[in-house]
Amino acid sequence: MVEGSNRADHLALDVHWTTKYKKLLLEDSTISRTTCIFKVPDTLKMQNPQAYKPHFFSLGPWHFGEPYLMEAQKYKTNFLENLVRRFPSPDDKIKELEIVVSQVKSEACECYGGLGAINVDSRQEFEKILLLDGCFIIEMLRKRDAYGLIPTNYSERFIFSNAMIPTWRHDLFLIENQIPWFVLERLYERTRDSEQDKPLVELAIDVFYSIFSYDKLRIQPKKINHILDLAWHYVGFSPEQPRWGDEHFDQNRHNIPSATSLREAGVKFRRVESRRILDIRFNNTQGVLEIPSLLIHPTTETIFRNLISFEQCYRPHPPKVTCYAKLLNGLVDTPEDVDLLSRKDIFNNWSNPAEVSDFLNRLDNGTNMDCLYYAQLCLDVRSYCQRCFPKWRAFYIHNYFTKPWGIVSQVFAIIILVLTILQVIHK
Q1: Is 344 left (phi over 0), alpha (psi -120 to 50) or beta?
Q2: Are strands 288-292 and 268-272 parallel, antiparallel or unpaired?
């Protein structure tokens, strides 16, 4: 296995080549139709730069060579070695995988939109990035799926430690940190064995579905660009047709009031059992806003910001998640709104209400939308709030039936009213 180790070691890429490589990236900034992995625009990144920055792993070319990420290369190389050692001839398996990557390198270059003009040497290094990072991802997904797995080496113990799982999950869903899906799929198919029958789509979904809710949804999109795109398909459902912009289109008319304001206007909130977090509906007859539960924890902001940035850059995808973020921004103005929605079990909140309020209020900053998926819902809610009876009923219940003294006063008032009526009848 000495030769095999040497072949794996040569995939630990030369850092000195990074400067030349990044210069070539900047020189060729043409974005083609097949571009699906983007550098985040500054208008979006400035809202929270850390939400777009890898913490430990560079995946793909955009962040390769950054000094603080180079320590991870040894773990990726170790995962590659462990992968090929499962086969009778590890050296032949690495050669086979190199050929697989070489066959798709041109198509993969187009996915990044800035690699079309690189020279032969840079393309060779690009192949190494795809092979090393691609194999690391599929091996990590396999290992994670092996419940009851006893780590066989230090790399596995480190990667699957409680401290590192949130870190690599953060890095796996950054728009600038993606490997094309067809590269992962080809590497996965060439390294499957008889005991590994689970589709790659299912392995990937297992990593992120709990970020949004506890229920798992099975999907099989016709086309997947990368893991972040798979997450977009997983959450990207809306029950309404979008309202497209025109010269008379005023987005402010389609905003929704805050949760506490809606409560004062008589609107009720109900958590619904839906595995699609975007499936928000308004029952106009009962005045009930039905919202699926959203799990809020440290990874939530990262994945939402990267999904929104992906929508803003990738035109084939409509801004469904961006519209969802705009709706949440409307519902949440203050920490009191977060508390209200948490009490209704709509937010399963692991964070401080003030922090959640702050990030939701900034989540759609810097975005542009030419359509709104919740336009009709917002109009229906605002129309309902204009009615007098729901507002009066909500005011009455909130002020007289939520406090002990209010309940007592109403009981006494009813008793006095009844006695007065009886006295009148008796006379």
Answers
A1: alpha
A2: parallel
Q: Is the pLDDT of residue 63 over 60?
A: yes
Q: What is the amino acid identity at position 30? A: T
At 290 the three-state DSSP class reads strand
By the 10 Å C-beta count (0-12 exposed, 13-18 middle, 19+ buried), 248 is classed as exposed
- Which residues, at least 6 apart from 98, have a Cβ–Cβ distance to it below 8 Å? 127, 131
**Helix or strand run (H / E) with residue 288:** strand 288-292
What does the domain layout of the chain look like in residue ranges?
Answer: 2-196, 243-386, 389-426
CB burial of 272-282 (b: ≥16 within 10 Å; e: otherwise) equals eebbbbbebbb
pTM of the model: 0.83
Token pair 């798979």 is at which residue? 230
Residue 15's pLDDT is 44
b/e 393-421 (16+ beta carbons within 10 angstroms → b): ebeeeeeeeeeeeeeeeeeeeeeeeeeee
**Burial, 23: exposed, middle or buried (Cβ in 10 Å; 0-12, 13-18, 19+)?**
exposed
How does pLDDT run across 243-300, given as a tens digit for each residue? 665 545 556 666 899 999 999 888 999 999 876 888 899 999 999 999 998 988 878 8
What CA–CA distance (Å, rounded) separates 156 from 203?
18
Question: What are the tens digits of pLDDT across the range 381-394?
Answer: 998 988 754 454 54
Cβ contact 263:336 at 8 Å: no
pLDDT, the chain, mean: 82
| CB-CB contact of 288 with 268 (8 Å) | yes
SS (H, E, C) 237-262: CCCCCCEECCCCCCHHHHCCCCHHHH
Q: How far is CA 348 from CA 263, 326, 343, 345, 354, in A?
A: 19, 19, 9, 6, 15
Q: How many residues does the chain have?
A: 427
Pair 71, 57: CB distance under 8 Å: no
Cβ proximity of 363 and 305 under 8 Å:
yes
